[in-house]
Amino acid sequence: MLRSIGAVLAALIFTNVCGVVLFRLHLAFFEPKDLVLPTRFIGIDLFYRFYVACVGGYLVGLIATRAEVKHAGVVCLMQLVLGGGLLYFSHVRGLFRAEPWWYQLAEVGVILPGYLIGAAFRAYRKKSATGAASSPEPLQPGRGGTTTRQ
């Protein structure tokens, strides 16, 4: 139980911290005029946020060790709650945001599949690693026409 909670929290913290750090680095090199972010900047941001979410999904699967995709689904649900709260407070309540409202909706549409893809990839890697280890070794020709296992 604690491992599941830790996996979900670790994935959320990792993806949000990495997303903010990469966004700030990108903003430092780009410097938009009039604090309005152009579409090209937002597109690049969505691109790397997808990959950060994939790594976060892989991380949740790595820590959880079973039911990887279900754990990633919980991370997706929590990210929806956090994203919805951010959208509400930034645009409905009138707090200033540099990006348009559709960007946050697109970000949720990009991040959620990223979590699921990363967790599914971890489940696939785990399944292929355990499947290869349990298969018997191939027979090798031995001396005198007999076959032996290595």
Question: In summary, what is this structure?
Answer:
With 150 residues, this protein is mostly helical. 76% of the residues lie in helices and 3% in strands.
Structure explained in plain terms:
This protein has 150 residues and is mainly alpha-helical. The protein has one domain. 76% of the residues lie in helices and 3% in strands. It contains four helices and two strands. The protein has a two-stranded antiparallel sheet with strand order 1-2. A hairpin with a 5-residue loop joins β1 (140-141) and β2 (147-148). α1 (2-30) packs across α3, α2 (39-64) runs antiparallel to α3 (68-92) and α2 packs parallel to α4 (101-134). The two termini are 41 Å apart. The relative contact order is 0.15.
Main sheet specs: 2 strands, antiparallel
- Percent strand equals under 5%
**Total domain modules:** 1
- Treating each run of at least 4 consecutive H or I residues as one helix, how many helices? 4
The average pLDDT value, as a whole number, equals: 77
The percentage helix is: over 70%
Shape: elongated
Give the ordered list of helices and strands: HHHHEE
Distance between the termini: 41 Å
Tally the beta strands. 2
Q: Provide the gyration radius in Å.
A: 22 Å
Strand order of the largest sheet: 1-2
Contiguous uncertain segments of 5+ residues = none
Structural class estimated from helices and strands:
mainly alpha
